[in-house]
Write a structure and sequence with these properties.
Layout: H1 8-21, H2 25-59, H3 64-67, H4 77-106, E1 113-114, H5 121-146, H6 150-155, H7 176-188, E2 195-196, H8 197-214, H9 231-239, H10 250-255
Parallel strand pairs: 1-2
Amino acid sequence: MSQGPWTWAELWSTWRAAVAAEPGGVFAQWITIVAISVVAGLIIFYAAALPLHYIYYVRKRDEAPRWKCQPNRWLPDKLNRQAMRLSTLNMIIGGVMSGTFITYVLQGGWTRLYYDWSEYGVAYLALSAVLAFLWSDGWAYYIHRASHVRWAYKAYHRIHHRFVATTPWVTVAIHPVELMMQVVANYVLLFLIPIYAPMFAFMLIYVLVYNIIDHSGVKFVSRIPWQPSSLFHDDHHRHFHVNFGQHLTLWDRMHGTLRRVDRRYGEEVFGGRGDGKGSEFVQY
């Protein structure tokens, strides 16, 4: 009895062969893979966002002072529905982009992805995981900070800041152009250094789920050393032009854009450093 493919490399080769043999050509393959990518992304998004919404915003609504980052500020239902629709749209766009990229790879397109973890060894796998995370998080910071330049903020990023009191549905309620910039930035790495494909996929899921947590509006203290509390990003929405990082405070510390004690921030206080002379960073 055949044991079938058990390694990622064998599974990938089997899937490529199956897709290549599918009638209908590249377009049919693309439609199928895009559909799978869109559905998978929406399942992950809703599987993380729905429980947070139900547990806190439905079951524990009357206990808001205990769990809510901004207990006296609530997102109106109309805006919450808008955030849900916009996030859903962006998850679909992201799924289309990912499905298109996967189709390119299945058709033999060149990347530096690899599928057998032993090809470069465990040490390189660990190092590349750290590099991939830093690459993704660094680009998230710089793209986000660039979106807070006065003209960019007023042209498109202000859409995301309508949601001052965040909820899980606000996570990717951004202008689609911002989403596409981050997706492209993530995939560029796959042409630069060898990256283990399952690790990269896991990282993207991790980034999405933690973004949902960070946008939840719920006070969470992370047990992961590099991950600040959810107050870090909630303060970005509350104070606008500060705390641009995604998962790390590293970039904000490097560039002096981490929120400081005794400084005034607001929608018209651009630059990321606030207004005032306080020098002590807020601890998250």
